[in-house]
Amino acid sequence: MGETDYVIRITDAWPAIDAQTWNALLARQPHATPFMRHEYLAALQASGSAVPQTGWNLRCFTLWQGGTLAAACALYAKGHSYGEYVFDWAWASAYEQHGLDYYPKAVVAVPFTPVPGTRLLARDATARAALVRALVGWCGEQQLSSLHLLFASAEDVAACEAAGLLLRHGVQFHWKNDRYPSFDDFLARLSQDKRKKIRQERRKVRDAGVTLRWARGADIRAADWDFFYRCYARTYREHGNPPYLTRDFFARMADTMPEHWLLFTAEREGHAIATSLIAITADISSATGQFCHQPQGTAYGRYWGALERVDCLHFEACYYQPLEWCIAHGVACFEGGAQGEHKMARALLPTPTASAHWLAHPAFNDAVARFLEREDQGMAGYLDELRDRSPFKR
User: Fold this and answer.
1) How many separate domains does the chain show?
2) Alpha-carbon span 289 to 294, nearest angstrom
3) Tens-digit pLDDT profile for residues 41-95
4) What's the average model confidence in pLDDT over 12-27?
5) What is the extent of the structural domain holding 134?
6) What is the DSSP string of 342-390?
7) Averaged pLDDT for residues 267-296
């Protein structure tokens, strides 16, 4: 068998893929996240969250050399663009206006999870390039309109660009731990107006009689998960949408990936009123109270919900409490999720993201390429503007 000879296997269910083998390949990736673990992706399907009934038709691609897994990814054939956070509604509308079908399309992403990281698991660059070719070839055979790799890693982007895919750039807001000894030391680095605003917001929550507690991993009780989901679902429905994720999904997370979850619960007069759920990497220490000379690991702001409205409680539960926890535990980075310039006032700084796109129709591919060139110029200017608005002392 030659160096570039691979056997391609495509399945539509996770039980057919060995978790240990998948996770071992993921562990070799420089930009692995918990959201690409076998347990996470399998739970999305098994819980009824990302399934054909909700518009997510899984195709698990694996490339093999003999008995060795060389590359793998999760692709979803989709009939809509919900739950992706890289918006292509205008592209779909243009197709429709020209009497063409944009859906179904193919998406290589983690459903409902706009977290940058590895999407194409591969043991080397050759295998990753072969996987990209396999994906494009399959989309062509299935007569899909397009292929989209969302929130991809640098290695994924390089492989896609080499294969001729179009690149699209966005921005998120991430906090970096500059080895702060305490939250007050972190605040001391900010400009006076930002420091004053954060202290005022935190004081409002305290003055309202609200306290927060945290629990991690196996210490998150079933009752805590139940209360979290009640808040999470209510917040979605208040915005007129059903929740993307089912209660069963979070039950599976508590069972198979407990070490990756951190829950903050807000209480007033002995009653829980709100929660925020944070995902964390496994390389975060449980020790606290010591200055960390070399922060490591990442925390990801994910889900929030409240039963009562308290001024500034969202900021406290979703930013200040997690940042304080990250400082105490020596966490290197906190990613605040998709969108939100307001995060800059909380010292989450603009961070570029990237996705890659292939469109089967040559004319539309050319039109999108021109659009992305203009969009990139605007994005570069936008990033420069954001960086000029740094919340830190100059």
Assistant:
1) 2
2) 14
3) 999 999 999 999 999 999 999 999 998 999 999 999 999 999 999 999 999 999 9
4) 90
5) 7-171+352-387
6) GGGGGTPEEEEEEEEEEESSHHHHHHHHHHHHHHHHHHHHHHHHHHTT-
7) 83
